[in-house]
Amino acid sequence: MRMFIGSSSTVVKFHEIGATSVSYTFEPTSKVDGPCRSISWSKDGNWLAVVPHLGFAEIITLKGHCKLLQTVQDVIEPSCASFQNLTKRNIAVGTKHGQVLLYDVKSKSIKSRYPRTTCSVTHVGFTAKDTHCYAGCSNGDLLLFNNVAKSLSCTMKVPKSNSLTSVQAHSQRRNFFVGGSNEGIVAVWDTNVNKVKFYNDAHKAPVTSTIFSPINAALVISAGLDRQVCVFDVDDRQRIACIPVENNVTSLDFTEDATHIAMGSQNGKMHVYDSRNLQTPVYSFEAHESAIRHLAFQNSSSDSVNNNSSVGSIVTEEVSRPSRSTEAVAVRKKRTSDIFGVIVEANAPDNDISDSPRSSVLTTQDGGDSFIQALGLDKNDTADSMKFEESIHENKSRDCLSGKRTSLSSFTPNPTRTVHEKLGLYDSKSIKQSTPKILAENFPPVFSPITSEQNRSKSQAVLPTVSGIQTITKEAVQDEVKKAIDDLRSDIKQDIMQSGAQIRRMMLDFHLAMVKEFMKMENYCNSIRNEINPDAAINRDSYLLEENMHLKKKIEELEIRIANFSNKSDVTSDD
């Protein structure tokens, strides 16, 4: 298959890898004399999203020949665009007005919108598994959006800088980002802790491009306008190489297997280096008449998704292409050291299976989630694995009902083998020996003893079990169910009785507490009464009796006075 490297200046050109002549040239519809703002390959490498200097974003196809496929007219004044890593249906488009939109290529409409930024968007892209979308802004902010909730997850900035000139997410580690600034600083972020993992005053001029190695998350390369290309080891937090070049390098890109790296210069020349020897390029040619703003190697198509070393073999003029069997696994390169000069071993076979968005569902070579990926659980094939297990159990159940005997080991599902067989890469020697084996004895097959009325005669069939041969009938199942129901009823009744007793105890405690409070209140009232009238508190009954006697005496005295007064009035009247 022909593989291309795309480069953009005022036009987009496609060079076949290993050749210096131009295969295709695409001129944006707007035909404005200005550099293209961004280019992005689709998942299978058949489409390329181009954002011209002015006008609408365009999607071109290289399937068969180069032609315009679609114009994104719903997005006004785009500034950058990027395909998703796992599908070519959706494109993230940033605008000069601070919008970040998700465009559906099939329906030709805007699918969703991310939170609006305060300034223009200069860079846009997706993390390894498309879980997040990132956007670089002209004010130096790097924004990370959740791709499901469409909400802002975090904001990052290059240390000691107020600008962001380049940014890239790692193709395997979804939490690693690298970026550069006009102040010459290169920084690597870890979004799991939302901190800067590493930064270095690498260049004495603005940084033009920063990239990760596809097979080594700790390896970073940067280029700047000081005619320097720097190589960093993020884990050791140091610069391990500095390569002088003849002209300012404006763009960088790795091949999928990291065996070669392309550099686009300010004078329009393109240089392709062997990553094991960065002193002299493998070949150089003049790609454009002006500065190369962007360049990108074409992604492998679905037909050659497992031939990760095919690009490197084309560059080194090894035309022979391995078959999609164990040879495809054997020709992949392996990282043997963190030092860039010997990062790739020329002919070392690698039994690991790489997992980058560009190479479908293969596991990483530098750790990460290799254990989960080896089980086939990190790939979107969980449903396929479940279907595979269900089909195995169904087939074995039919065999058992027909009287066939099968070993227990054949019932053990192997999702890893399923993934490898789909890719045509299954080889018993190529599976990682560190992956624990699942013993069939721990997962015995389960057979349902319940049969339909139409197959009543088969209900007496002998079914295999782990302990031996056992006959299970419908009556036995009914007895077990009835026994279980009776046990459940007795348990519920006992629980109800216990609950009733607890409620009664709680009511008695509540009543006793009320009586205690009433007595406390009565004592309090008596104490207040005693303070008001202490004499009455000595002998309240005698006090009342004395008070009544005193009142009676007063009444008698008043009666005597009234009588005397009436007698005096009578004597006066007689006189």
UniProtKB/TrEMBL annotation:
A Pfam family in this protein?
WD40
Q: Its domain of life? A: Eukaryota
Q: What is this protein called?
A: Protein NEDD1-like
User: Which gene name belongs to this protein?
Assistant: LOC115888995
GO MF term list = gamma-tubulin binding
What's a single GO CC term here? centriole
Q: Which SUPFAM superfamilies match?
A: WD40 repeat-like
- Tell me the Gene Ontology biological-process terms attached to this UniProt entry: microtubule nucleation; mitotic cell cycle
